[in-house]
Amino acid sequence: MAWILQSDRPIYAQLVERLKTEIVSGVYPPGGRLPSVRELAATASVNPNTMQKAFAELERTGLIITMRTSGRIVTEDTAMINETRRELAEEQISQFLTQMNNLGFDRSEIIELLSERKGEDVHE
Amino acid sequence: MAWILQSDRPIYAQLVERLKTEIVSGVYPPGGRLPSVRELAATASVNPNTMQKAFAELERTGLIITMRTSGRIVTEDTAMINETRRELAEEQISQFLTQMNNLGFDRSEIIELLSERKGEDVHE
DNA sequence: ATCATTGTATTAAGTTAATAATACATTGTA
DNA sequence: TACAATGTATTATTAACTTAATACAATGAT
């Protein structure tokens, strides 16, 4: 997954969303070490300050923990991780249904559109 | 539908999205007159300049047309309107599936979650 | 012990968004 | 004709975001 950032939203907010997703989907496992601020910033081609801001936000919610000079790790609280995953999915679903309804699609049409569809399946 | 604007995205971009949705869903019918810049700005509690910027964007795409001193109207090109609706829905679906896949849900799980769901249906 | 790496903090600069306060030309209408 | 309402333009100010360039304390490894 490449670090593609849109310009119509604050970068740090996009970093937060991306990192959250990577944590709850197991890219960074519970208790696992995260790359350093500088390293991730370089990978994502953003300023270290911006990545730091994103990390601070994740820290605030308890999803990651700082070990001062030895980097950061993902929480080992798998219940919290699962809950976060559930919340993120809930947000996606709710927003999606709302927007599709605003566009004039009802539930059965939406499900039909999704069922017909090819291509978005998980790769590798 | 209230004018609820999030702070984590440029307001004018949210106005564009909302107005597009209202046009393609028939809130503002083809050839119909739109409220004035000042009026809509007041309704949405934003600065007239911000609403003007949103209108300018919609104008650029051809969805609305300016009649100088007598306001603006929605295009009568229903093909364009339908195409826009299709594009907006396509974006929603594509983004939704991508994000849900990133969260670790496959297609069948997604459809199941949507099918179980109550509440997002169109009201009135 | 030394040193590279870690998180963290600070200061400065530049950009964009949003608001505010006006102003102007044009046109439909009273 | 006079006037209100239209889109449009301008200038200024404020705030948020991002980048840049450093700097410092703490720690793990050599």
Can you describe what's shown?
- The structure is a homodimer of 124-residue chains.
- Chain A is mainly alpha-helical and 124 residues long.
- Chain A has two domains: 11-76, Arc Repressor Mutant, subunit A (Orthogonal Bundle), CATH 1.10.10; 79-117.
- Chain A has helices spanning 11-24, 37-44, 48-60, 78-102, 107-116, and strands at residues 33-34, 64-66, 72-74.
- A three-stranded antiparallel sheet of chain A has the order 1-3-2.
- In chain A, strand 2 and strand 3 (72-74) form a beta hairpin.
- In chain A, helix 1 (11-24) crosses helix 4.
- The longest helix of chain A has 25 residues, at 78-102.
- The first copy, chain A, starts with 10 loop residues before the first helix and ends in an 8-residue tail after the last helix.
- The mean pLDDT of chain A is 92.
- At the A-B interface, helix 1, helix 4 and helix 5 of A face helix 1, helix 4 and helix 5 of B.
- Chain A binds a DNA duplex (30 and 30 nucleotides) through residues 10-12, 36-38, 46-50, 52-53, 55, 66-72.
Detail the topology: elements first, then pairings.
The structure is a homodimer of 124-residue chains.
Chain A: H1 11-24, E1 33-34, H2 37-44, H3 48-60, E2 64-66, E3 72-74, H4 78-102, H5 107-116
Helix pairs in contact in A: 1-3, 1-4, 2-3
Chain A binds a DNA duplex (30 and 30 nucleotides) through residues 10-12, 36-38, 46-50, 52-53, 55, 66-72.
Q: Determine the CATH topology of the largest domain in chain A.
A: Arc Repressor Mutant, subunit A
Write out the CATH superfamily name of the largest domain in chain A. Winged helix-like DNA-binding domain superfamily/Winged helix DNA-binding domain
Overall 3D form of chain A: elongated
Structural class of chain A: mainly alpha
Rg of chain A computed from alpha carbons, rounded to a whole number of angstroms: 17 Å
Q: Can you tell me the CATH class of the largest domain in chain A?
A: Mainly Alpha
